[in-house]
Amino acid sequence: MAVGKKFVFVLCVALCVIMGIMTLNSLNTQVILEKYRTTVRQFSMLPVQKQQENCSSVQKYNDNGTADFMRVMATLHRERQDTLARACADWDKRQVGNEPIGNALFSKKYKFTACPIFKSGSSTFLRSMLEMEGVNQTPMKFDGLMAEGRKRRIAALPTAEKKQEIWDQYLNVILVRSPFERFVSAYTDKLVPSGRGYTYVYKPLSKKLRDQFISIRANVSERTATEEYATFEDFVNHLIRNQDGGRDHHWRSYEAWCSACNHGYDVIMKMETLSDDVRYVAELLGISPEHRNWFFPSSKPATDIHKTERFFETVPKNLSLTLYEMSKRDFDMFGYPKPNWLW
Q1: H/E/C letters for each residue in 66-89?
Q2: Is 50 exceeded by the pLDDT of residue 47?
Q3: Is 55 a residue whose pLDDT tops 90?
């Protein structure tokens, strides 16, 4: 970069940061400054012209309430990171690590990674990141998408040094939801005839679980039911009897998939606040309007606590409590309380 252009860029970023600082009166200054530094770090990897264009976008944080929104979200995400840190200290007696994780997808264009969790936005992350990288998805079937995704995982990078470099320099993101809601979503999508994922893979699995657990259903009358698929109680019995190593990807734990205590994440998105989290990440990364159309375009909260409770009402409470205890690490790491109906 030419010295003159570099000076212009540094001055521009400095002015942007100063303008942000001037509006931080009543909120946690250190938290907001950390997010400004994150944004500046992203700018430093762009061409000079793009850096200067994005610098003006930081100034726009002070217009139309965006600055207030970003400060509130920065504070919220710091609280989520603090919650994770406390859980890691409790569970592992350690601080949150900074190791790269091979599962994570990465976008060179916007300099971020995402650890995709099945039944928690993994398909949308994959499709949006492929679009950001200019991959034409129109002719692709599912297997083709998966193959393209494997090329864009941290694990595909050639050296340990390159993997750590990406992890250190990019914004690392994870998206979670209440663990019990995720179980219900997986069941209704994969194991019942009305589900979109009730395919040649999951239809026989559902029948297998039904045959395995029908004889121990709590309601004796259901032990002679003629349906050819698993009930939710059958599914819960399966989860209880299978630790992560024996579970399908769609109901494997967050810890098994993304091991947050080992790897750490800069932004912890949640399905319960998806719309705000999507806007926050898009602003931090400077995602273009074109690519925002792919980045969780229907970003309303995809949660229904009443639906989750209704499904668990069909399960003996002792089974639900056992599943909660098995899943408690995921609940604790991401600040999800024990459901009221389990007390």
Answers
A1: HHHHHHHHHHHHHHHHHHHHHHHH
A2: no
A3: no
Q: Classify residue 105 by its DSSP letter.
A: E
User: How deeply is 338 buried, as exposed, middle or buried, from its count of CB atoms within 10 A (0-12, 13-18, 19+)?
Assistant: middle
Q: What is residue 225's three-state secondary structure? A: coil
Task: Give the pair of three-digit tokens for residue 257.
Answer: 């998939």
The predicted pLDDT at position 79 comes to 95
128-151 burial: b if 16+ Cβ within 10 Å, else e? bbbbbbebeeeeeeeeebeebbee
* Token couple for 87: 């859980």
Both tokens of 311, joined, read 């499904």
Which among 263, 266, 265, 296 has a CA at the least distance from the CA of 282? 296
Q: Provide the b/e sequence for 15-46 (b: ≥16 CB within 10 Å).
A: ebbeebeeebeeeeeebbeebbeebbebbeeb
279-330 pLDDT, tens digit per residue, is 999 999 999 999 998 898 865 555 677 899 999 999 999 999 999 999 999 9
Structure tokens at 314: 């069909």
Inter-residue contact 130 to 145 (CB < 8 Å): yes
CB neighbours of 137 closer than 8 A, spacing ≥ 6? 127, 130, 131, 145
List the structure tokens of 309. Answer: 């409770």
* Residue carrying structure tokens 């109906």: 341
Give Cα 153 distance to the centre of its chain: 15
Angstrom distance (rounded) from CA 212 to CA 136: 43
Closest CA to 275 of 304, 305, 303: 303
In the chain, domain spans:
3-92, 99-343
Q: Give the Cα separation of 77 and 223 in Å (integer).
A: 47
- Average pLDDT of span 170-184: 96
Q: In what order do the strands lie in the sheet containing 105-107?
A: 105-107, 112-115, 171-176, 267-270
Q: What is the pLDDT of residue 64?
A: 53
Q: Which position has the token pair 């069909």?
A: 314
User: Are residues 275 and 300 in contact, defined by beta-carbon separation less than 8 angstroms?
Assistant: yes
Question: What's the mean pLDDT in 326-337?
Answer: 96
Give residue 108's Cα distance to chain centre: 19
